[in-house]
Amino acid sequence: MALAIFGISNSGLNLAATLFVLAIVVVWLALIVYTYLDAKRRISDPFLVACATIGSFFPYIGTAVYAIVRPPEFLEDAHERELEIRAAELRVKQLTEASCPKCEYPVEKNYLRCPKCQQRLKDPCPTCGKPVDPRWALCPYCEGPLGDRPRKARRQAPRKREKASQPPPKERVQPTAVKDTSSPQPTSRSPEREPDADPRKA
Fold this sequence. Notes:
The chain is mainly α and 202 residues long. The protein has helices at residues 11-42, 46-55, 61-69, 75-97, 148-165; strands at residues 123-124, 131-132.
């Protein structure tokens, strides 16, 4: 005699009830597997994946709670979105570097000045003459050093400032001899002319 489920003695109904209970158990096990696989695709932390899988052992309720609190996107989608954001930022950076920082006019990489506002963009290499960035310390074309120019300019700049800040030299005044008026000086007298002899006496 077959075991009666829910007190059903009819063999046909008992078979149907048995199949129904078996289907519920199979669906429950399938939900556990689904929860594990879905959590593995959406969550990068293994501990959280294990917690979601253990929670799904509560029949139907655990899986329903996981479906509510799970991340909205897969890890692959999030990674692709980050790559798209980085690519967009790189394109914006390239457009910014390919334009004048002052007037935003499109310029080429080998331009030394902006053709519109004449803003200085790059400096020519003293060795090969190719355009180089002022922030570079080495020319990537001829491997010539570029760090000496700014250093010399920086050394000359303080000297110019010091020279400009120093007052102009004052003219030296030569001391003049002061005459001593306290002691009387002898005056030179012209010699008196002797009178001519009287011709009568002769």
